[in-house]
Amino acid sequence: MISKSSAQTLALTELGRDTCPMEWQIKTSGAGLYEFTRDVAAKVTGTGVLTLFVQHTSCSLLIQENADPEVQTDLAAFFDRLVPPSDHPRMSYLRHTYEGPDDMPAHIKAAMLPTSLQIPVISGEMQLGTWQGIYIFEHKTVPHLRRVVGMMVGAVR
């Protein structure tokens, strides 16, 4: 009798399980959401699971609605009110302000929101909903070049 884990390993082997690393560099121009769904879709092949990870501590990754830009505006406004800059009276207890009043609040927002995502992929198509897009959520007010790494695991072509 084959154990469940052995059967899963066998099934993955039969699929031709493989991995495919990927990378994206996203330029931001300050705080806000930046969609890069098409950039990701251009590199995805095969069937499996795509994991995305942002290599920074002051921004986040989100899957969010991409049909109405007011959604992104409202999300940014909500988190700005929830975690205002360190020069706001409510935030006077913050000490990590070396890069300005948005520094520690950016780290707090990144701690509250995802820095990695998993997306199922079937025959080279990410299984996102009709109005879903992949976003970098930049929490800093100045421009940055953000690096996102990805790993596709499954039957990669």
TrEMBL record:
Gene3D superfamilies: YjbQ-like. Pfam families: YjbQ. Signal peptide: none annotated. InterPro entries: UPF0047_YjbQ-like (IPR001602), YjbQ-like_sf (IPR035917). It comes from the Bacteria. Belongs to the UPF0047 family. This is Secondary thiamine-phosphate synthase enzyme.
